[in-house]
Amino acid sequence: MSDDVKVRMRSAEPADLDSLVSLLAALFSIEEDFVFDEPKQRRGLSLMLENERGRVLVAEAEGLVIGMCSGQLLVSTAEGGLSLLVEDVVVDERWRGRGVGRLLMAAISDWAKANKVSRLQLLADRNNVPALDFYRSLGWHTTELICLRTFLQ
After folding, report:
1. Any idea of the CA torsion for 126, 132, 135, 137, to the nearest 10 degrees?
2. Cα–Cα distance between 67 and 7 in angstroms, integer?
3. Sign of the alpha-carbon torsion through 14, 19, 25, 28
């Protein structure tokens, strides 16, 4: 990131929805388990913005939203307290490799600490090598757990 470009972290606002939806479209285009569906993603983001046990953070530069990261508080029986499920970490392609992702992850970690969270966790596409390398560079580790899911009709 050049020294003259200021990147600011802040909580997302309803006015950011269009930018957030666009970022999710980019993210879902590289994830194999999700299909982008604008009305669903817009509805999900709106719910996240209203969620008092969650946070959507944005990275803003030059008056534009250039990245986002969201997280939700969960009760962990393993930790005997709160954990944070980190979701939707994405940086606009033109800003990748410039430290924006690190800033977002630091900001969500700070929010988690302020909420007395003892563990952060996330799911990542096993084929997204750049993302996995990024998380490892931040000190994240893989586990022996796998993700399972089902849909209710």
Report:
1. 150
2. 10
3. negative
Residue 25 pLDDT > 90: yes
Residue 101, classed as helix, strand or coil, is helix
Domain extent at residue 27: 7-137
Say which residues have a Cβ less than 8 Å from residue 13's Cβ, sequence separation at least 6.
49
**Is 150 contained in some domain?**
no
Taking Cα atoms as reference points, which of 153, 115, 106, 113 lies closest to residue 134? 106
Helices assigned H by DSSP within 51-128: 100-114
Domain count within the chain: 1
CATH number of the domain bearing residue 112: 3.40.630.30
Opening angle at CA 36, ends 74 and 8, nearest 5: 60
Residue 16, both tokens:
């950011």
What is the four-CA torsion angle of 42, 112, 75, 129, rounded to 10 degrees?
Answer: 70
Taking 60 as the threshold, does the pLDDT of residue 2 lie above it?
Answer: no
pTM, rounded to two decimals = 0.92
